Amino acid sequence: MIDVGGTEGGVRLRAPRHRVARRAVLWWSCQAASRVVVLLAAVGFGAWWSPFPNRALVIALIVLGVLGIGYVTVMPWWRYRVHRWETTESAVYTAAGWLSREWRVAPMSRIQTVDTARGPLQRALGLSSVTVTTASAAGPLTIDGLERDVAADLAERLTRTTQATPGDAT
Amino acid sequence: MNEFPPEEATAAPTPPPGPFEDWQRLDPKAVVASTALVVAPMFPIVAIMAVSDDGSTRTLTTAGVLLGVVVLTLVGSWLRWYFTRFRVTAERFELREGNISRSFRSIPRERVRSVDLTAPVVHRLLGISVVKIGTGQKAGSEGELKLDAISTARAEELRRLLLRPRAGTTPESATPPVADSAEETGTELARMRPTWYLYSTLTASLLLFTWAAVGSALSTLSDVFRALWAADTATDWLSDTASSVWTHAPLWAVVVAAVVTVLVGGLLGALAFSVEMWWGFRLTREGDATLRVRRGLLTTRAVSLERRRLRGVELAEPMLLRLAGGSRLTAVATGLEHGETSGRSDNKALLPPAPRGVAGRIGALVLERPGTLEDGAPLRAHPRVALRRRLSRVLLPALLLASGLAVAAHQSEVVPWWSWLVPLGTAPPAVVLAWDAYRNLGHGHRDEYLVTRYGTGVKRTVLLQREGIIGWRISQSPLQRLAGLLTVSATTAAGNGYYSVRDAEAEQGLSFAESCVPGLLSPFLEKNSEFTSESVDSLDGTSHERAKKRTDHP
């Protein structure tokens, strides 16, 4: 582990050690695709029903389509590069986001609950999300797109560790 | 379930040890109080009807309906009273209630975070109080148990019993009579000064609130009038007078008169409201453990806060109040309602809006620090890039709008040529606000407290106990990344749930977080020169194995 020793400057956050499952890219792509399809359908519907032949709407549709394709292809891979997680004996550390990024740290001693959640799509892909909550209303850490076994194991391990450490600073 | 105590037990002048050990009922007067709440608004209606009575059957019917409502309410609140029982055992506080859907709630006494007493006017006349017992759970009603109502003396007793640091688990040791008399007095930290009403009158939210209240009251009244056709002539007269004034007086006079009426009315209303809110305000410390705020003219409120639940304080200065040199002081504590979700902030107020110096001094007293909150090293200012961000945030939209309007004016006759000047005109005040927002940014330490300051509409200074920090949330938008800034948020169980240092220079922000809670963030920091972040395991299975190994064998 790197010891920064409280030095001023020259410090930055390093990425957490573990990536999520590669299939998470597929999961994110599906989510993105469904979003884009809904949006395009709405605009397309508007263009079709529009009382006068509206070229602007058609152009908007094309632009949105191109942007949507870009979103569906780029965003999941970008996320896959960013989303990472790590646990040490004293803390859980996650990174998430793509354009905007967010890093969260929660000490083991302050963890209250550990949940795993699997939506239908995640289940089909054999993925799981792990959510770690603390006493703060603002502090849950979520690790999306974990391999199912990894998630179950992680949740079990975190639960065991947190049961051993009392107190949650409420 | 135990047998209920005989009535004498509650009326006895000296309660036996463990006074709430057996199942207790609410005070029967609560039935009267809750019925009175329903009945009171009916009096004006009945009175108006009696006055404008034309001998029709409508009056009788309405009276009958109202009587029915009264009876129903009476029965309903009697049933509620009959089925509600509570008790305090050595370990737990238990509450049974409900006649149709019965509920039983039992919470460990150590989870009780706050016990608040409220007495609206009717309750006060009857000598009873509503007791709210907060457990600090997130979900609003889930976390709060309400006893409506028990006699004020017993409510006091219950409050003291529940908030006493648990010396032992036996009820005998939990109620030493000596401590009661000592706590009765408490140490006074602050009490109301008449000039402070002016500060609370200034608080803009109060102004708005007053107008909302007046508006809703007026619309209710007009509904009543309209429903009864009682005021036809009055409204005719009013509108006649209004229209004659309107047509005969010059326009500017009417406008000025309207504005003056609104302002004066608003100010008077706000003054009345703040007197009602803050009359008889006292902040006391009882023993070592509890802070207590008591206030209210018509409705009295008494909020208790355990010292160990207090994680810090917040100084909030809304713009108007800030210009007058005033500030509000609120508690950052666990177990109080969360500001963002509830919008109700009055139960975390430690002080009415007061001069900034006083607020700082009382804040320091509350945190048991010498001097005032302002003492100590000045807060660290944020880099100039943060100012640029704030400036561009206000100026870019104005410029875009101005250029858009200029183009539009050039293209069409409808848009007047000077229209692009309007958004530009908003630029100077916007620049002032941006500069103010930048100047207010700051962060630092005050001993065991993290300090962050931000905001321009409401300038906030938060002191958060470093022990109360239970994690970090660090975020960076693409624009922040370009500027080399990030936002560091300390998460906590108290108050809002998190407090942010906005737009800190990246390295400063990180080392600040690390110095606030040494050791929490350091394993995840690296020197800029060392480029090790890409040492990531590509196979999830192996990485997982390694993680496990690292956790098990540090």
UniProtKB/TrEMBL annotation, chain A:
Keyword set includes Membrane: yes
Domain called YdbS-like PH: residue spans: 80-157
InterPro entries according to UniProt: YdbS-like_PH
Annotated transmembrane regions: 24-50, 56-78
Domain of life the protein comes from: Bacteria
Keywords linked to the UniProt accession: Membrane, Transmembrane, Transmembrane helix
Protein name as it appears in the record: YdbS-like PH domain-containing protein
From TrEMBL, chain B:
Regions annotated as coiled coil: none
Segments traversing the membrane: 30-51, 63-83, 196-218, 251-275
UniProt-listed InterPro entries: UCP026631 (IPR014529), YdbS-like_PH (IPR005182)
Pfam families in the cross-refs: bPH_2
Domain YdbS-like PH: start-end pairs: 81-161, 445-512
UniProt-annotated stretches for the region Disordered: 1-20, 166-185, 530-554
UniProt keyword annotations, A-Z: Membrane, Transmembrane, Transmembrane helix
Compositionally biased tracts (Low complexity): 1-12
Recorded superkingdom: Bacteria
PANTHER family per UniProt: UPF0699 TRANSMEMBRANE PROTEIN YDBS, UPF0699 TRANSMEMBRANE PROTEIN YDBT
The name this protein goes by in its record: Putative membrane protein
Source species of the chain: Actinopolyspora xinjiangensis
